[in-house]
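User: I'm new to structure prediction. If I give you an amino acid sequence, what do you actually give back? Let's try with this one:
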Amino acid sequence: MEFNNDKPIYIQIADYICDKIVTSTWKEEERIPSVRELGADLQVNPNTAMRTYEYLQNKHIIYNKRGIGYFVAENAMQYVTQLQREDFFDQQLPRVFKAMLSLNIPFEELQNHYSIFINQHVE
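Assistant: Good question. You get back a string of structure tokens that encode the predicted 3D arrangement of the chain. For your 123 residues, that looks like this:
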């Protein structure tokens, strides 16, 4: 996994895990790699992997069964979607709005492009 400087590594790893959940690679109530396994797989310090798991536990996406390991939580998909929506509204959308302002793009033009996009991608 390649990391960028735009956000903390533990958040990028959380995004990676969330993608595994969204694509059903990791299913609800399924055991996921240990902290050490994840650290080795992604070539990061186990402390970074642990920070990721603590973050995801706080978001109710994974949980720990003491002595057994970490598991994908029930309703994880719902929590992942909520987390991704928060990221979109807090991080990505403000960048779009800033670009729109600097390029003098009115909201109506964005709406038109969004409508075209939806029509092309919805069957």
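You can read the tokens as a compact description of the fold. Here is one thing that stands out. The helical segments are 9-22, 35-42, 46-58, 76-103, 107-121.
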